[in-house]
Structure to design on (649 residues):
């Protein structure tokens, strides 16, 4: 493939003290690609996403996002790269409470270094395309419905036009119908903006919706003594 | 969004805590500034009283007492200098001016000072600010009297009124010795406030005062006679203080001042340099001053600790917020500086509001005092001091933000992103 993959991992290794060890020899997600990372609860899905986002310090290895190795730099520079190249969505959204829907999206742009003049309009466009409009934009997220909060979370993940969105069990607390709808929403939003999507789930029923699937057990080995 | 709007939002999310913390700081700053201002006002009042004179000559037991009695009317000087001695003193050196004072009478407790019209022309209670009349004119003839602003404001005397003085140094205002009902004065002038102790005094000519005392002397000797200016004898003519000004060249007191100071002392006078005596007096009260300022500074420090507690207590709430910002691309340094700046902004707001508190409080008391008592207590803090206090408060507040800032800096991201139950 001539194009740069959205995600390219090589020789990555990590272990929580006393926890399971993560080893990824080689793994990539193509630009605009969609991958489901499957595994039961406690299997290490969140750990892997945090590693890929540079929020945990790997022992060794490379994590290239859009061709740039995130782990080669540390501190503020790594934070800046994460803000620009990676969008994250969480099961419980992790929106900034007290801030409005628009401000949540604008904060992502601010920390990613998007010029301030563009913030308001870009946030309104983005939220609008996800179905939020009018005074919903300026309402504190705590006073939006759960469905609306979910859309704000998606909008925020895409606000800085990242190369890849890491979605950590966005469907965990939803019934199957809603889970399917949510996955479609996230997918559609990423597709429209050309972002790759890496989505984790412990729900086997989602599997059929993804062509590319990978099991967490491929990368994770339980600590010695804990059995296999 | 900018860092500034993030901080404003963060402050508004915890509005109650923010407002209470800012008010705590504001009260502390207001108290601090008020104490500083009062100290300055007090000092100014003393500095004003000594005005443009070089030397105060008297027969009082000591120079500080002579200044307190002669210029601040703490009590009436009791030791007379015969008129002949005054004239000899006046002729002994080419003074710029020499003004005699005779104290001992009062009007409803306010000291009446007998002097010459030069008192209003040459002497200035605050150097560079000549006397001004709110109404009327200086005294010219015998038994004409001028009232200070506070006397006029509290007793209601007005130009054209006739008043009688009382002799003696009765302790309280109710018990002011015996009255000179036989001789009444015509009020011919009311002074503008000078900000000095002279606002609490009245001023008339020497001869009239001597007549009152001559009358008393005759009464004491059992002779009930009317005494007029023509009946005055040498023994009646005396003064209790002399204000002296040495000729100066280009604003600098001449080198003759210390020589004359020494000469007059050798001649048996009590000689005071009012500015120096006031300096000594302020030196004595400086310790009390320092204690008050230290207490106000402690209150300010306590408000700084209040900021730190308010921020620190909210850190539990903030950890998730910090973790989310880190995911969005904020560095450790950024979350540290956001916390520190938030703290500093509480300091700025508290400092500015505190300055307003102090200014409003001061304006309110100043206008009340001026209306009711004719006392002038101006806001006597220069902008540089106020600015220094506000900047100092901001630095203190920023320092209070260091610990919460470090908590933000060290907040682990991964563990704070977990769903809460
Ligand atoms: N900081 C840590 N120190 C030690 N062990 C940890 C730490 N964080 C996670 N673990 C362990 O690592 C394993 C993987 O945790 P992780 O949260 O990645 O699982 P997960 O697949 O995301 O689970 P879930 O589906 O419940 O979210 C778990 O056994 C967990 O106890
Ligand atoms: Mg997880």
């Amino acid at each position: 493939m001539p194009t740069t993959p959205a995600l390219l991992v090589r020789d990555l290794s990590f272990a929580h003290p006393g926890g399971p060890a993560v080893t990824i020899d080689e793994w990539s997600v193509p630009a605009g690609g969609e991958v489901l990372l499957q595994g039961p609860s406690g299997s290490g899905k969140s750990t892997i996403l945090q590693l890929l986002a540079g929020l945990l310090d790997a022992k060794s290895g490379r994590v290239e996002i859009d061709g740039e190795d995130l782990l080669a730099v540390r501190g503020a520079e790594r934070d800046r790269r994460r803000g620009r190249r990676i969008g994250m969505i969480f099961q419980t959204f992790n929106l900034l409470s007290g801030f409005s829907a628009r401000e949540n999206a604008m904060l992502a742009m601010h920390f990613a270094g998007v010029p301030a003049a563009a913030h308001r309009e870009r946030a309104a466009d983005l939220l609008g395309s996800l179905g939020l409009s009018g005074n919903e934009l300026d309402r504190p997220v705590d006073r939006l419905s759960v469905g609306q909060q979910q859309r704000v979370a998606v909008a925020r993940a895409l606000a800085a036009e990242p190369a890849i969105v890491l979605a950590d069990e966005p469907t965990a607390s939803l019934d199957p119908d809603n889970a399917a709808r949510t996955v479609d929403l996230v997918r559609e939003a990423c597709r429209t903006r050309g972002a790759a999507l890496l989505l984790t789930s412990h729900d086997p029923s989602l599997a059929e919706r993804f062509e590319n699937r990978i099991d967490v057990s491929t990368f994770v080995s339980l600590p010695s003594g804990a059995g296999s | 969004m900018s860092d500034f709007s993030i901080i404003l939002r963060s402050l508004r999310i915890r509005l109650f805590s923010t407002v209470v913390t800012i008010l705590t700081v504001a009260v502390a700053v207001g108290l601090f500034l008020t104490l500083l201002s009062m100290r300055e006002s007090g000092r100014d009042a003393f500095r004003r009283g000594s005005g443009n004179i070089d030397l105060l000559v008297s027969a009082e037991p000591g120079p500080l007492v002579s200044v307190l009695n002669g210029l601040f009317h703490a009590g009436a000087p009791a030791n007379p200098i015969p008129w002949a001695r005054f004239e000899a003193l006046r002729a002994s050196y080419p003074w710029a001016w020499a003004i005699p004072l005779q104290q001992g009478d009062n009007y409803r407790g306010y000291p009446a000072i007998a002097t010459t019209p030069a008192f209003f022309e040459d002497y200035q209670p605050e150097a560079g600010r000549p006397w001004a009349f709110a109404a009327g004119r200086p005294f010219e003839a015998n038994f004409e009297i001028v009232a200070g602003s506070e006397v006029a404001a509290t007793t209601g005397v007005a130009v054209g009124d006739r008043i009688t003085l009382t002799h003696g140094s009765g302790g309280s205002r109710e018990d002011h010795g015996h009255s000179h009902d036989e001789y009444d004065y015509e009020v011919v002038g009311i002074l503008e406030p000078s900000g000095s102790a002279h606002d609490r005094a009245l001023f008339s000519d020497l001869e009239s005062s001597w007549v009152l005392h001559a009358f008393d002397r005759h009464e004491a000797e059992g002779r009930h006679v009317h005494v007029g200016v023509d009946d005055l004898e040498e023994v009646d003519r005396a003064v209790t203080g002399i204000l002296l000004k040495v000729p100066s060249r280009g604003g600098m007191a001449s080198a003759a001042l210390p020589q004359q100071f020494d000469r007059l002392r050798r001649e048996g006078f009590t000689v005071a340099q009012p500015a120096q005596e006031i300096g000594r007096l302020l030196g004595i009260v400086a310790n009390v001053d320092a204690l008050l300022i230290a207490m106000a500074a402690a209150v300010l420090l306590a408000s700084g600790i209040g900021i730190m507690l308010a921020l620190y207590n909210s850190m539990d709430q903030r950890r998730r917020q910090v973790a989310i910002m880190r995911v969005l691309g904020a560095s450790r340094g950024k979350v540290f500086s956001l916390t520190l700046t938030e703290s500093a902004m509480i300091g700025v707001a508290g400092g500015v509001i505190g300055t307003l508190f102090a200014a409003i409080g001061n304006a309110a008391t100043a206008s009340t005092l001026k209306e009711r008592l004719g006392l002038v207590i101006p806001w006597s803090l220069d902008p540089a001091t106020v600015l220094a206090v506000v900047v100092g408060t901001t630095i203190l507040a920023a320092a209070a933000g260091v610990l919460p800032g470090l908590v933000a800096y060290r907040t682990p991201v991964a563990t704070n992103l977990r769903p809460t139950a």
